[in-house]
Design brief:
The complex is a heterodimer of chains A (100) and B (996). By secondary structure, chain A is mainly β. Chain A contains one helix and six strands. Among the domains of chain B are: 118 residues, Roll (Ubiquitin-like (UB roll)), CATH 3.10.20.440; 193 residues, FAD/NAD(P)-binding domain, CATH 3.50.50.60; 135 residues, 3-Layer(bba) Sandwich (FAD/NAD(P)-binding domain), CATH 3.50.50; 73 residues, Orthogonal Bundle (Arc Repressor Mutant, subunit A); 107 residues, Aminomethyltransferase beta-barrel domains (Elongation Factor Tu (Ef-tu), domain 3, Beta Barrel), CATH 2.40.30. Chain B is elongated. Chain B starts with 12 loop residues before the first strand and ends in a 14-residue tail after the last strand. Classes of the chains: A mainly beta (100), B alpha+beta (996). At the A-B interface, α1 of A face α19 and α23 of B.
Amino acid sequence: MLLIHCPYCGETLPEVEFAYAGEAHIARPENPSAVSDEEWAEYLFMRDNVKGVHYERWRHLHGCGRFFNAARNTITDKFLTTYEAGAPRPALDTLTEGGK
Amino acid sequence: MSKYRVSGRGRIDTSRPVSFTFDGKRIKGAKGDTVASALLANGIHLMGRSFKYHRPRGAVAAGSEEPNALIGTRRGPGRFEPNTRATVQEIWEGLETNSQNKFPSLKFDVGAVNDAAYMMFSAGFYYKTFMWPRSFWDKVYEPFIRAAAGLGVSPKEEDPDTYASRNAFCDVLVIGSGPAGLAAARAAAVEGLKVVLVDENAEAGGTLLSEPQAVIDGKPAWDWLSSELAALKAAGVKIMTRTTAIAYYHQNLIGLVEKLSDHLEVLPQDTPRERLWRMRAKQVVLAQGALEKPLVFHGNDRPGVMLAGSAQTYLNRYGVLVGTSPAVVTSHDSAWFSAFDLADAGAKVQAIVDTRSEIRQELLDGAKSRGIRVLAGYTATGTEGRLRVKSVRVNPMQSGKVGAPETISCDALLMSGGWTPSLHLFSHTQGKLAWDDDRTTFLPDYTPEDCVIAGAGRGLWGIAAALADGAEKGQQAVEALGRSAIAAVPAVKNDRTGTGVSHKELPTDLSPGKAKAFVDYQNDVTAKDLRLAVREGMKSIEHVKRYTTNGMATDQGKMSNINGLNIASDALGRKQPQVGLTTFRPPYTPTTFGAFAGYHRGGHFEVTRKTRIDSWAAENGAVFEPVSQWRRAWYFPKAGETMDQAVARECAATRSSVGIFDASTLGKIEVVGPDAVEFMNRMYTNPWTKLGVNRCRYGLLLGDDGFIRDDGVIGRMGQDKFHVTTTTGGAARVLNMMEDYLQTEWPDLNVWLTSTTEQWSTIALNGPNAAKLLAPLVEGVELTEEAFPHMSCVECTVAGMPARLFRVSFTGEIGFEVNVPAPMGRQLWETLWKAGEQYGITAYGTETMHVLRAEKGYIIVGQDTDGTVTPDDAGMAWAIGKAKPDFVGKRGLARPDLTAKGRKQLVGLLTEDGSKLEEGAQIVFDPAQPVPMKMVGHVTSSYDTGTTGRPIALALVEGGHDRMGETVHIPMPDRTIAAKITGTVFYDPENAKLKI
């Protein structure tokens, strides 16, 4: 069972308190009616299947209830970092496994 | 005492005799014996029959790796466990045990005919032998195989025991209490650190229990062990025995199963049988040691053929000679020491047969001084003896040739093919293994976890090496925690170290095609099977494993994996690291379902949510149904009524007078804030801006893909306050979805979302007399068509209680939903019930609710929709606010596939013969077409007990909206039913009944 650091609560807590919420940094188009069918399909359906560092969303469902982002290595299952929703994607070279 | 029990040896207490039964026969042992050691002390090697060939088998090992000696254990009703390893089960007075997989008896077994018919059961036999004729599979082959193969029989009674579970934390967890583990725990026992030492055995000590000859720090090994354990306890180390580390999960979470009562004669009151610990350790030291490998030769599975190290354990730990005239076959030095121990205890060792021609002088001297014959450079090519080994056939090997055989009589055969590090838990961490060509084994390499491996687990042999490595690794764990430790390494005398070579099958002069040289004892896999699998095209070790079932038994390949790999690698002509090892998976040893289930059984298996009115329903004879963790009243049968009769009565009473329904399980979300209306506009399809305060509207929620996700009536309680209701099962999902959009897409909106499902008790009153019943109880609003029309809502007082009153209908009748603070629910229900007596008020359940809503064509999301249904498909395009610039799903609805012709659309169905359709039944246009027919939809809802006088159904049908009046067909196993497509509203299409 993973240990996950909630950037809002500031605590590292067991996975059972959290719910996975898919890939991170996928923004809903500002004006959906203005995008093409292809662009809309891209937003709706297309996701990366990363071997390595994956930017993903979690929700501290049974805690503060906030959605936040994480960078996790899908090979080792280790979190590199977690950060608040809306914050920019952290650069890979600044991250080490197990970092908070 | 039997001739096999050696007085003065072992750690058992011979002053405390213990008797138990094995296959009904009374067996005497001593306190401290396992079932296996007690049987061996009585000269009994035959303990079971093998899985596939029913070959006689005895214990081959002395610990949890045992593949053969699986027994059933019983302690009164319900306390039966199959497949218990006799080498692990401690005996107690009165324990009942039985052998398995035999008929009619262990000594004479009919199924042993399989052994003679082994040609039929070779690798992949499931895929070959029994394929033809096809019709024979179900009736002949499968029942025969199922009856003949297998291990123990599952218990059928309910388990009366309880199982506990706990979460725990520690700084350093040491797994295994042999010399390496003890030294690691000692080094880690630094002031302020919480250290836990676990071992699966009944007592701590590991190898030391089998090697009493060693002298550590000037003390005999067992004296040193006692003082060391006392020192560890004094230093605050928690020592847990009979505790198996079954699995290594992410981030150093270790599953530990502690057995609490299986070894006790009298079950303690209120004590669980087992306790599952979820131990989160900052650092883990794996000190699980190594497992001895069998040698692979014809007849290596006969009872009495046993691992040499295990024979040594039986002698030194249990005071049992596994034979009085044993022989030894080995490729490793360690078996020589076992032979010496047995000889020193009085056994006449017949010979030590070593595959190596060069033997250390020290060993040769040891054999010579004990008068043991040595055959160096020999191979073993067979054994004899029906139920117990009586001789071994050996041949000299010279320059690659196998010479003439010689037969050596023996009553036990000790074998050793060397040692394999126990890497199971290390592998659970996704640890990488590195092949060591010298030792012909895998050693631990890299692991992503905070974990080190010490001692024999990384290929170090001998007590001194294990102690030194354990101390170093313990120190390392402490340093990783930012502390420092000084570990003293004790001096060891009389240590036993050595080397060996590794083999695939032993060379033989006999036809390899006829050899039964077992690799996996528990699954009856031979070397020949592995080679056959490779010949038949299995190139990957994972395929070889599955084709032959090698390593797939309950022992997880503890003995078979490396031998299997060596043989497969030889057959494939590739080196072992190129072939690779199959994955070890949890649990390390077989684990009871009870341990995993813990407290979650019976009524605690899952949460049962009950409304505040549930108690009234129970008292009034309701039959309940589970609805997404809720227990809901399904219908209220009167004496003698069937379900259909009860539902018909409830429907009729509601349509003709008034029905009362507990709707408290409806999901409720309070949407509040200055931007609440904007948020609602973006979330739901409907327009909300113009909805007045105290008015409500049916809301439809889509996903951004355009498909229906949820629905419910939403009331505007204030300019900035909405009372949102959701489906019973959708409440949590809808709130999660709302939070997702609010937090991550529209964080600029000033809105608060609160789940209020359990804050309100909700009672629905429906029927022509609903208003008449309710009006006298309501303060603050007149229940007239003018003052409180359909789709109104208001905060008011009902029967003196603060209430949110909604005028809505899910039945087509005049309807109200009264929400009061949850604890007042039953009081309101009883008040309404009393007030309704004059109208013959009738309580109805979810079934009647379903029938009445279906008659009006009101959908149930998740029943009439399935995640691919658009509002238009469901006939609810009217619910879409087309003028809104955006809402969740708006863009999705414009996708080409969602506007295409021929989509499945919701329609009504009326059968031509008046029969009731089955929900889920498939629909076709042309019943005369050949099978497989083209399916064009399915029945989503179907009822026959309603008020329309005939069965009705809802269905999704391709292009259904344009097929009104057409006939479709529903093929069933016995006949095909014709039905006419209609609209979805079967009752009061003008909505006349909604008016007060």
